[in-house]
């Protein structure tokens, strides 16, 4: 198969997702990743790669998830906008559902590859540079700030729900996810970075890995694939509501871990 024929498969999946003729699952994700070379998704994600900590394949798959989304999108942890732009590009190319990004902001001048003196200012500039500002809104603060839930409810509107959630933040899984979990659709696409540890993220990855596996092994999540470098893709499974209530019973504290726990 030529490179052009191969990329056409990926481009067709984008069109099928946009038209509601396809739905992401493990098989479709495998096919998408195998045919990215030369595709529209790969080309656009390479332009975002310069300001993202995520692998371009992960950005491409995030974009595909956003193409499928029909209700609303929640992102926790955007840094200077790489993942935000991947999601916003998918919404631009499909259904422009409400999309809220939650980012605490600050500076990170010592970051070795993507230093910034102002996370929020660089986020705004990067999103605007690709003409994507109209597809997203930013709540500056911590995900477990009660005002963040209000911001999401306001963004979604009455009866609104989220059918894609992406988190790339600290290791506090339930404290970050829990406050929003009532707003997730039953089959919400679920994307978690830090599923594996990469360069000094061992503690938060330990927590995310444990939490995702805990939910997956009990039917609360359905796995598509972990994707380079450390991002887990799947969607909510039938047991998620029961497991959500179980976690709520613990006051949204994190799942118990053997030994040391997580984070920041
Ligand atoms: C690894 S970076 C995100 C990288 C980004 N997704 C990308 O594509 O490059 C993590 C970001 O999450 C933010 N963050 C960490 N924990 C958070 C929390 N609980 N609530 C809000 N933002 C958080 C940090 O300020 C940082 O900008």
Task: Provide the succession of SSEs.
Answer: HHHHEHEHEHEHEHEEH
* Average pLDDT metric: 92
From the helix content, strand content and strand pairing, which structural class follows?
Answer: alpha/beta
Q: How many strands?
A: 7
CATH topology: Rossmann fold
Number of helices: 10
**What form results from the Cα inertia axes?**
globular
- Give me the CATH superfamily: Vaccinia Virus protein VP39
Oligomer: single chain
Per CATH, the architecture is 3-Layer(aba) Sandwich
State the strand order across the main sheet: 3-2-1-4-5-7-6
- CATH C-level category: Alpha Beta
Share in helix:
40-55%
What small ligands are held by the chains? S-adenosylmethionine
Largest sheet: 7 strands, mixed
Topology of helices and strands:
Elements: H1 3-18, H2 26-34, H3 40-48, H4 56-68, E1 73-76, H5 82-92, E2 99-103, H6 119-129, E3 137-140, H7 146-156, E4 162-167, H8 173-177, E5 184-192, H9 202-217, E6 221-227, E7 231-236, H10 240-249
Parallel strand pairs: 1-2, 1-4, 2-3, 4-5
Antiparallel strand pairs: 5-7, 6-7
Helix pairs in contact: 1-2, 3-4, 4-5
S-adenosylmethionine (SAM) is lined by residues 52-54, 76-79, 82-83, 102-104, 106, 119, 142-143, 168-170, 172, 176.
Fill in the keyword field for this structure.
264 residues, alpha/beta, Rossmann fold, 10 helices, disordered C terminus, binds S-adenosylmethionine
Describe the protein:
Strands 3-2-1-4-5-7-6 form a 7-stranded mixed beta sheet, sandwiched between helices. The chain has a single domain (3-249), classed as 3-Layer(aba) Sandwich (Rossmann fold), CATH 3.40.50. It has helices at 3-18, 26-34, 40-48, 56-68, 82-92, 119-129, 146-156, 173-177, 202-217, 240-249, and strands at residues 73-76, 99-103, 137-140, 162-167, 184-192, 221-227, 231-236. It has 10 helices and 7 strands. The protein binds S-adenosylmethionine. S-adenosylmethionine binds at residues 52-54, 76-79, 82-83, 102-104, 106, 119, 142-143, 168-170, 172, 176.
């Amino acid at each position: 198969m030529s490179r052009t024929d191969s990329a056409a498969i990926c481009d067709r999946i984008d069109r099928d997702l946009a038209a509601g003729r396809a739905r992401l699952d493990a098989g479709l994700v495998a096919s998408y990743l195998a045919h990215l070379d030369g595709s529209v998704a790969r080309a656009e994600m390479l332009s975002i790669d310069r300001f993202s900590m995520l692998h371009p394949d992960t950005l491409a798959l995030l974009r595909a998830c956003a193409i499928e989304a029909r209700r609303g999108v929640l992102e926790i942890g955007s840094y200077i906008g790489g993942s935000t732009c991947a999601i916003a590009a998918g919404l631009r190319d499909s259904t422009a559902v409400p999309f809220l990004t939650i980012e605490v902001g600050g500076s990170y001048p010592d970051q070795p590859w993507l230093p910034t003196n102002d996370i929020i200012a660089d986020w705004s500039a990067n999103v605007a540079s690709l003409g994507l500002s109209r597809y997203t809104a930013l709540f500056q603060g911590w995900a477990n700030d009660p005002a963040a839930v209000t911001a999401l409810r306001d963004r979604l509107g009455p009866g609104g729900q989220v059918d894609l959630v992406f988190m790339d933040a600290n290791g506090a899984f339930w404290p970050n996810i829990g406050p929003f979990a009532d707003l997730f659709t039953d089959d919400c696409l679920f994307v978690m970075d830090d599923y594996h540890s990469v360069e000094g993220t061992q503690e938060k990855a330990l927590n995310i890995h444990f939490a995702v596996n805990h939910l997956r092994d009990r039917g609360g999540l359905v796995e598509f694939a972990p994707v380079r470098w450390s991002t887990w893709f799947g969607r909510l499974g039938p047991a998620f509501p029961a497991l959500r209530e179980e976690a709520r019973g613990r006051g949204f504290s994190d799942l118990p871990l053997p030994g040391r726990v997580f984070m920041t």
